[in-house]
Amino acid sequence: MSEYMKNLINGKWSGTDRVTENRNPSNPSDIIGLYTRSDSEMVLKAVEAAKKAQPSWASASPQFRADVLDKAGSLILSRADALARLLSREEGKILAEAKGEVIRAGNSFKFFAGEAVRLGGQKLPSTRKGCDVETTREPLGVVGLITPWNFPIAIPAWKAAPALAAGNAVVLKPAELTPGCAHEMARILHEAGCPDGVFNLVMGAGAELGATLVEHPDVSAISFTGSEAVGRRIAETCAKQLKKVQLEMGGKNPMVVLDDADLEVAVQVCLNGAFFSTGQRCTASSRLIVEAGIHDAFVERLEAARAALRIGDPLDTKTQLGPVASERQLAGNLEAVRRAADEGCVVRGGERLDREGFFQAPALFLGSHNSMSTARDEIFGPCASVIRVADFDEAVAVANDTPYGLSSGICTQSLKHASAFKRLAQAGMVMVNLPTAGVDYHVPFGGRKGSSLGGREQGSIAMDFYTTVKTAYTFAG
Question: Active site annotated at which positions (predicted)?
Fold first, then answer.
């Protein structure tokens, strides 16, 4: 019988009489566990507990907060192998990628443990004689976190850790599709000594629980990662309440390949960026913009590398590509493949594989143009459009011609073009001779345009969103 996993509210494990079956996308008959399916009442209880617990957490020694976060990070790292297997089973990432994500989560907690004792301000000279001025950072109160299924432990970690380091209390609503890793993170924080009510986990359907969390008057801020459509609705609700909001949404990230690129490097960079993690990354390289002189040779090499990818059980160490995360996601991907063909692309791969689980061959859409829907709309699967351009200037124009602006990349051996692209790319992150996906835990993460709204995540700059600044004057006479 599968284990029944419950919410963590006010330091107690509590559930409802409804459950969600957490199934393995590579083997849907494998039930990882039964996870409570909460109702809105559970969200209200979690917010109430957080509101009650937050003042004492905020007034505690920053060393105490640092110790809790550091211990949580150490526990995550010590259990990396087991957590990676859980992540692979519930989301479908290959084991190596899953372990890398777990390590990133552990390192995030340890990094923000340090930020808890570095939460500084400024002491400034006043323009008025006899006055002192100082600024301090203070927590917001209760913060609601809504996280996606594609990074089921890294994203909850990089949101929760800075929120807690700043002295906030947290209510986390993870994706219903992948609750297992968030549940384990909650268990670890509880074990690490996080006081009752400071961190609360509420699992269930986003449509039912998200609105309650976003609309609650005692929730001071919302940090959300997910689709642009949902993000816009959250932004509208938060704006009406004058509530602080942070959104990380979609991407249609370009990777430019210039004629002077190292062909082998370019192929590996694009193979990784477009298809690894089964393309289920908001930073994936879904538009490959290739200069005419290298186009044919690049396509030939990339197609051979695509066709040779080993697709299979993510727990098999020889596997390079696991399944798509769900039947619904796979159906959307297959529809995008059909649409690309209808738009006039030559499609290589993209078919559903004849085996148990939600497996799809990675797809290249050759002969694509930036005006096609498949080159403009986020697919969120192992699908990449190849767009031929005449020169560097056209490549930059096509790269920037998108409603998104998360990550952008270029493969070139020209310092001149690399430097120009870093300056001209309308994106929050720029990669040179590296995949568009993959950002260290200690540097800012976020984008522009339809990709992001609010402060950056990760790194010390993440503390900006989870704090408010107070300016205080003292007249000394």
Answer: 248
CATH of domain 4-249+451-475: 3.40.605.10
Whole-model pTM?
0.96
Assess contact for 187 and 3: CB atoms under 8 A. Answer: no
DSSP H helices, 180-260, are 180-191, 206-215, 228-240
Q: In what order do the strands lie in the sheet with 199-201?
A: 12-14, 7-9, 199-201, 169-173, 142-146, 221-225, 244-248, 452-453
d(CA 142, CA 387): 46
- Measured on CA atoms in the order 299, 302, 308, 312, is the torsion positive or negative? negative
pLDDT at 17 over 90: no
Which residue is catalytic, options 248, 291, 378, 457? 248
**The two structure tokens encoding residue 254:** 């370009």
> What percent of the chain lies above the pLDDT cut of 90?
96
Topology of the domain comprising 253-432? Aldehyde Dehydrogenase; Chain A, domain 2 (3.40.309)
Q: Enumerate the H helices of 11-153 as residue ranges.
A: 40-59, 62-78, 80-91, 95-116
Domain spans of the chain?
Answer: 4-249+451-475, 253-432
- Looking at the chain, the whole-number percentage of residues with pLDDT higher than 70 is 100
Backbone angles phi, psi at 451, to 5 degrees: -85, -35
